[in-house]
UniProtKB/TrEMBL annotation:
Keyword ATP-binding among UniProt keywords: yes
Biological processes annotated in GO: inositol phosphate biosynthetic process
Keyword annotations of the record: ATP-binding, Kinase, Nucleotide-binding, Transferase
Nucleotide-binding among keywords: yes
Function (record text): Phosphorylates Ins(1,3,4,5,6)P5 at position 2 to form Ins(1,2,3,4,5,6)P6 (InsP6 or phytate).
GO MF annotation: an example: inositol-1,3,4,5,6-pentakisphosphate 2-kinase activity
Protein name: Inositol-pentakisphosphate 2-kinase
Alphabetical list of InterPro entries matching this protein: Ins_P5_2-kin, IP5_2-K_N_lobe
Species the sequence originates in: Coemansia pectinata
Length: 417
């Protein structure tokens, strides 16, 4: 990984950028122009509510711009100094901040509008940002070698949960959290009874090749927005909304290859280990600590800057390295920050990109370079401290809804690490 901390000045032409994907907060556009410095890179542009950036020249907009720039610089530092040592340097994509003009942003906004999904249209590219993140392209429209009959294929995994919580401080009605993982319970809030996914993320993190492959099959049956396969830059599903051989060339081979990768790459075990340790208090006991820290002023409504994050991480690392299980020595503030770090890491996506995936008509798949891949995590900006009450409510709702549908403990399907 290489994270450049300065602000880079490059001439950006709106017509050179194509829509790739987006989440709640950011739109990703990829470069297809002629500048070799930008080829193979994407821009991550932040969004705002439609209309919120109407007056780009106001005093408020200028304050907002400075704050946003600081937040993005902190996010770069966060990636380099915290995410990178946790997951491994090799899994964090190279990134840098580039200057972007209002004209550039407004034109890109207009150019990509027709390609955006309806569910995301309440927000648009924020024309007030003065800098955006340039990062390595992980979803590509063209295969690396156009001379062969191959595709560019990227698999996106957003597993959302890596371990069962080990907190001993659960209310009696929450003890189910020791048996059923957060993702499996959440299914009952997100979907109708008959549509809950059979995918369990703990299977994906099991380290057992067969369990991993089976979990990918379950993921493919109910991909939702947690499992996406991009073929030549487009996300694909079959007519039933599933991932199968009908939409992905050699799906069985892809599933097996991804299972091998998930078993072999240290990323998965590192994410699981740190998730287990960081979530040791769980949101249930963190909410009172958060309230207490706010009342006593050890935490304020100001979101933590990079200095506070570095202290949190150093403190956490010291405890982890000493092998101490004594949670009583952890301050309220530290417990809250660790929970936020755990939530940040829980929400990352893992992208695995194959530059030369065999086309459907390829008979000898072994001769193609399908095993050459690039892997990285995306979406690791720190979550907001002010989300703590929301996380607590979500957690309670998830448990309550799960128990409504599964009141009988003997019939609950336990998750296994
Ligand atoms: O709350 P969750 O667990 O549903 O996660 C949200 C994600 O929903 P998901 O369940 O993955 O579809 C949600 O993902 P989508 O945009 O729905 O794909 C975001 O990642 C959201 O993060 P943020 O608010 O943008 O920082 C996520 O919010 P956080 O809870 O991580 O803040
Ligand atoms: N480097 C990249 N190259 C190609 N595509 C990417 C890259 N990074 C992200 N994407 C795609 O864009 C999507 C949205 O990106 P990102 O997760 O950064 O947005 P977000 O708004 O922060 O997401 P969320 O809603 O999960 O918080 C990802 O899910 C992925 O499909």
């Amino acid at each position: 990984m290489s994270i450049s901390k300065g602000l880079v000045d490059i001439q950006l032409v709106p017509a050179d950028w194509d829509y790739v994907e987006e989440g709640i907060e950011n739109v990703i556009v990829s470069y297809h122009g002629k500048d070799p410095k930008l080829q193979g890179w994407v821009l991550r542009l932040t969004k705002c509510d439609v209309g919120a950036d109407a007056d780009v020249d106001s005093h408020e907009a200028s304050l907002f711009r400075n704050k946003e720039l600081q937040r993005k610089q902190d996010a770069l530092e966060f990636a380099a100094s915290i995410v990178s040592p946790i997951v491994g340097d090799e899994y964090v994509l190279p990134q840098m901040l580039v200057n972007v003009s209002t004209e550039f942003l407004l034109q890109v906004r207009e150019n990509i509008e027709s390609q955006r999904p309806t569910k995301r249209l309440a927000k648009c590219i924020d024309s007030r940002q003065s800098a955006s993140m340039l990062t390595k392209e992980m979803i590509s429209r063209t295969p690396a070698d156009n001379t062969q009959d191959v595709h560019s294929v990227t698999v996106e995994l957003k597993p959302k949960c890596m371990a069962l919580p080990r907190s001993e401080f659960f209310a009696p009605e929450s003890s189910v959290k020791h048996r059923v993982c957060w993702y499996c319970m959440h299914q009952y809030t997100l979907h109708e009874d008959g549509n809950v996914s059979k995918f369990c993320p703990l299977e994906l993190f099991s380290g057992d090749r067969d369990r991993i492959a089976r979990s990918l099959d379950h993921f493919a049956q109910s991909p939702n927005n947690n499992f996406v396969v991009f073929v030549d830059g487009r996300s694909v599903v079959d007519e039933q909304g599933k991932i199968s051989d009908k939409c992905v060339p050699h799906w069985d081979l892809l599933r097996d290859t991804v299972a091998d990768i998930a078993q072999k790459e240290d990323l998965f075990s590192r994410l699981q280990l740190v998730q287990r340790e960081l979530d040791s208090f769980n949101i249930e006991s963190v909410l009172p600590k958060y309230k207490h820290a706010m009342e006593t002023g050890t935490l304020t409504t100001e979101e933590p800057g990079i200095g506070a994050w570095l202290n949190t991480y150093t403190e956490f690392r010291k405890r982890l390295d000493s092998g101490s299980n004594d949670d009583s020595i952890v301050s309220d503030c530290q417990a809250v920050m660790e929970l936020i770090l755990a939530t940040t890491l829980r929400d990352v996506s893992v992208l695995i990109k194959f530059d030369s995936w065999p086309a459907r008509n390829a008979t000898d798949t072994s001769s193609l370079e399908h095993s050459k891949y690039t892997i990285g995590v995306v979406d690791h900006d720190p979550k907001k401290l002010s989300n703590i009450p929301k996380y607590h409510k979500l957690d309670r709702d998830i448990v309550a809804t799960y128990l409504q549908h599964n009141p009988d403990e003997a019939r609950q399907r336990p998750c296994r690490e």
